[in-house]
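#structure-requests
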Amino acid sequence: MSGVRRWPLHPQPGPLEALSSWLGRLARLYEMPVTDLLTRNLGLVGLAVPADLDYDPPAAMLAALAERTGVELARLRAMTLAGWEPWLFDTLTVPIDQTQPMFDAYVRDHSVLLAPGEAGTNQVNRWKRWPGPWLGWSLHRACPVCAADPDRGRALIWRLPLMTGCVEHGCRLEEAAAVDAALALGHEGPGPTLLAEPLATVDRYTYEGLTTGRVTLPGRTVHAGVWFRLLRSLLDEVSLSLTGRSSHGRATLEHVWEATGREQRAGLTTWRPYEYLAPEVQEAMLHAAGTALNLAAKGTVIACGRLASTLRPEHRHVYDGAPSAPHRSSWQEAMDQIETALALARTDRDAARQLLILLTLGCRTINRFEEERAFLFGAGVSADFLPSARELGRADLT
């Protein structure tokens, strides 16, 4: 046992709560600034408190917080953006010489609506470096219902253009400054606005991935890391111009945008990565992506991409009314999910390829890549189903 004393007051963080949100609630309990809480009261007087606590805070700070509060270090890490490598991000820091390869690997290698190779050859602007998936704008949003409860915090994911609403309350996220100002003046603040479909469905998929590590799509259940890349690829596809697409691709994209009731490509005339788009245009793209998911599931449009099978419902037995087993928290299902993925990879070439991509996202050397490839082969996945690093375009491996 160490001699470190626990803080007398240390409420547990909420599901998916951001580290900054939780620390703000803790500091209010002790009536002090967050900076004081993280220095003198944490025993780290020389610590430089980062301006953005949710990005990649010092390991020493997280370790000391775990000792003072009893919250597991892994959970604290998951309350930061760095804690979501490699599932949500390949890496938070994209080397400038790897910007385009990493964009292509995350976005263009996982086609959904369009046939493989049809997405185009748009290049990321070398003078305005792509920051990585989902990291263009730092949004400051709040759920009006959650904000009215002082014991509730704000979710980390609300900072990113990945969700539009609060899944628990089914309402749209609002600008945090407006919500906070109204509450500070004793007003009720902006009332909750119902989040309409198909944005609500996209949010539910994302929330399921964040809380359980997997997403139940119409065709099959996929790992959360696959869902994030599928969604980002779909957002890219609906942003493309019709020029250069096949007749099927053009018809599909036209059908999707017509079904949204919005202007084609949300009015874009020049392609730009999703992360560079204004928030209102990002929401229009999410609307189109959700519409595409719905149309593909119903068979109204035929998806032709590598991940198309995840959207096509297969024949299933009629539900017999038996209650579902309760979900285990966060990544406790990891081993079950891996075995499920392996079972599919043994018979499905595309599933094997995607599993290899997922397992090697964090690999930086060819030896490490080959170790993961050997693991899949040893687990019964056919070597013919497992492409080489060169075939996957992993020119970044040393």
